[in-house]
Specification:
mainly alpha
Length: about 130
Amino acid sequence: MNQALRHIGRTLAIALPVVLVLSGTLAVSRVPWVGGPADDTVLTASTGEEELTPEAALQERLLTTLRQEDPSVALTALQEAVDSDPSLAPHCADIAQALGEAAVEKYGSTRRAQQHARPVCDTSYASGVAAAE
């Protein structure tokens, strides 16, 4: 009997550490902070603001200009921005439409907003004014 207990003790002394190491490794590998190939993001310190795309930044800047000044100034700035950076051209119509909607919101009247129309991005500004009705 004594010999059997000694044999069981030796077996456990060898097997138990191996089992504990393997189970610990498996447990740690399943914890969310261990990233897989899809989790290649790096967290950086920031001010809490998201990085805007160039077209979104332009739209925000032009909406601010429209609210502080008038739609004519914003539309002229939009045309200049598209002329200087042709990569913004595909977004021109959406930005002009947003400016039209914001102009109606500012003036409360489609007629007054339409007075500031410019031939920027075809008739997108006018579409925005009409959509805001």
